[in-house]
Amino acid sequence: MSDKPCGCSHTCQPAKQPATRRAAARKLPRFTIQPIPAAQPRLDHTALMLLSARLTERDYEILDHLHRHRVLTTHQLQRMFFTIAQATRARMTILLQLNAVTRFRPWAGYGAGSAPIHWALGKAGAAALAARQGITVKELGYNPDIPVAVSSRLAHQVGVNDFFSYLHSRARHTSHAVLRAWLSERQCATQWSDLARPDAYGCWSENGHQIDFFLEHDTGAETLKRVADKLHDYRALTDATRITTPVLFWLPNPTREANLRRLLTDHDLPIATTVHTTHSDGPAGPVWLPVPAEAGQTRLRLANLDRGWPHLALGQSPEQPASADDHEDALLDRIFAEDETESR
Predict the structure, then answer these.
(1) Integer Rg of the chain from CA
(2) d(CA 75, CA 89)
(3) How many CA atoms does the CB half-sphere of 133 hold within 13 Å?
(4) pLDDT higher for 27 or 207?
(5) How far apart are the first and last CA of the chain?
(6) How far apart are CA 299 and CA 261, in angstroms?
(7) For the packed helices 74-81 and 57-69, what is the interaxial angle rounded to 10 degrees?
(8) Pairing assessment for the beta strands 209-217 and 177-183 based on DSSP bridges
(9) What is the pLDDT confidence band of residue 114, given thresholds at 50, 70 and 90?
(10) What are phi and psi of 182, to 5 degrees?
(11) Lowest-confidence region among 16-30, 169-183, 248-262
(12) CA angle, residues 214, 219, 221, in degrees to nearest 5
């Protein structure tokens, strides 16, 4: 019997143990780290030409809205541009195959079911938009590295877009209703960030009545005092621009609306509140209650909210003559004139 530790009859040397952990690590095989492949392929001129031949006017509108408002769900796109869900899914799948858009489905939480598919602008779509405007993708302001899918403000952004998607749908199906303007939070920040930061700006016209407004979409995540304190910024904005614009609060439930209204009585700005609703005409319908409101006062339609503040000249400077054209177009002309100046 062999007296060797291994018990074999061959001449062998005992294995040498590494002196340190670092030495042992050096003897481990090295693995090559492969780069993570890009989710969207590179776009050349040939691919861009083929893409432009497939895009319709509606497709360009969809891409433009995805660029300006960051993300839209399948339901929102259906309200804004289609009639049935099957057509929405079919066309968006084609745009996905063309790399004009990307998509993701966020986690909805246990017991909440599946979240709808969320769509965002793709690299090819951004290139097509930029080429159509005669600018570069950089000048367009598209940044594919912004993590929209994991943003902490994703639900808030979707909520704001939900509000306007219902107005957009109402305008599509009603000949006497028009959504004249919808500026995103990013566009509002470009215009007024040094004074106020609204979630969105809108201009709504229906049955000969028109109102422009700032939207504050409340999800219940902030304290009511912090929500109410935002009005100080809107007061500064009103004083600086000499234009009185209503501030609309869209709240998650009646209890929160009632509690917030108790904190808004000391402000002289035009303010109105309502609860998230998708029934009947949605936010365009008779769901808005001005501040202050008398006991038993009925809620007003969005386009008729100016009746809640008959003492205020909305949408114009008090120094300007009270003409109908000035009332309708003063703020809009100023906004779009500034946009054209910045783009040159």
Answers:
(1) 28
(2) 10
(3) 19
(4) 207
(5) 94
(6) 14
(7) 130
(8) unpaired
(9) confident
(10) -150, 100
(11) 16-30
(12) 120
